[in-house]
Amino acid sequence: MDNLRKGFPVLEQYTYLNTATSGLLPEKVWEFRQDHDLDFLLQASLLKERQGEILTGVRETVGSFFGCAPNRVALVPNFSYGFNTLLEGLEKPKKALLLKNDYPSINWAVESRNYDVSYAEIDEHLEENIAEALRKEEPDFFAFSIVQYINGIKLNINFLKNLKEEFPEVVFVADGTQYCGTEVFDFDHSGIDVLISSTYKWLNAGYGNGFILFNKNVQPKILTKAIGFNSLQGKYKAQEGNFIGKFEPGHQDTLNYGSLKTALDLISSTGLEKVETQINSLKARAKEQFMELELLEDAVAARKEHSSIFNIKGDDKLYRHLRSRGIITSQRGNGIRVSFHYFNTEEELGILIKELKKFRS
User: Does the keyword Coiled coil apply (predicted)?
Assistant: First the structure.
């Protein structure tokens, strides 16, 4: 277990249960960033001449990690940039299906455009609600978070795959920001058409980097008009009709995208299967103890499958009490959000439970 915590100095100071807000910066990513900027300081344009080579390596690492060919991987600074660029490429007007009270960067972006929008409820029957809404509303695209940011309700990946078989013409657009890096994931066999993710949370890659994965059949439905010099440069662009280049106009940041590659390499060296096993163990134990203390909303308690994000009952006084004890959480919705990553331990869960009981006594 100590090996899983190595290289994360924050863990020496705090009980950090807040990856759902911000992941940690690993020492290896910090070291890469120092080396990169030293190279830029000493080499200037000589380093930038290697931009294509560097970004090709990032693209190939992302593709290998998530099961997507590198010629269908676009590198973007964050989810919102990628999603808004995607929406501008969809022919309008369109019928859209969203999840009610999903992450604002999804819903606000769709609602601010000229779409006919309908919603599915997020509760213990989430999958049934989505299937019913698709049959009733017949949308052109369905945009959603795989994991809900407030309470951690997680969509079943096999459900999405089966759903796509029932609705092959609907474009499925997923936000993977609260999901990618928590379990083994094969994009090409997921049923998702487009997955967009920021990587500063569960992938611990820092800010300013993200990616988009495209299903090979979805490209004709996306007519993105953005273009810049870098749109035509790179190994996977010109021969692919410049599709992914439309999401990468201008000069790209090799510091931030290189950070993403370093972070993915770190998880791969640890073993994503090992990461998934540790997270599954922690979230199962956490849910059990939270339910014993009656801290979870009914919708979360009733679901068999859940993420490692929980929203527990508590107010500002409890939040401040936990912070005073060095337990880092966040306030979301009507409660306190706690989240467990692979570097967390059952001992840290025990520290949280102890303070929750102490506060209530």
Answer: yes
Cα separation, 167 vs 165, in Å, equals 6
| Cα gap 95→49, rounded to integer Å | 44
pLDDT band at 227 (very low <50, low <70, confident <90, very high): confident
Q: Measure Cα distances from 3 to 27, 269, 286 in Å.
A: 13, 11, 22
Q: How is residue 240 written in tokens?
A: 């692919």
Please name each of the domains of the chain with its CATH number.
2-17+271-360 (3.90.1150.10), 30-269 (3.40.640.10)
pLDDT, tens digit (0-9, with 9 covering 90-100), for 275-316: 999 999 999 999 999 999 999 999 999 999 999 999 999 999
**d(C-alpha 325, C-alpha 321), whole Å:** 7
Q: Which two tokens stand for residue 220?
A: 């004709």
Q: Which among 186, 153, 174 has a CA at the least distance from the CA of 83?
A: 174
Q: Of the candidates 173, 187, 183, which has an alpha carbon nearest to the alpha carbon of residue 306?
A: 183
φ/ψ bin of 323: left (φ > 0), alpha (ψ from -120 to 50), beta (otherwise): alpha
Calpha distance 116→141 (Å, rounded): 11
**Buried b / exposed e along 297-336 (16+ C-beta atoms within 10 A):** bebbeebeebbbbbbbebeeebbebbeeeebbbeeeeebb
The whole-angstrom separation of Cα 62 and Cα 185 is 12
| pTM of structure | 0.95
E strand spans, the chain: 15-16, 73-76, 94-99, 115-120, 141-145, 171-175, 194-198, 210-214, 309-313, 327-328, 330-332, 335-339
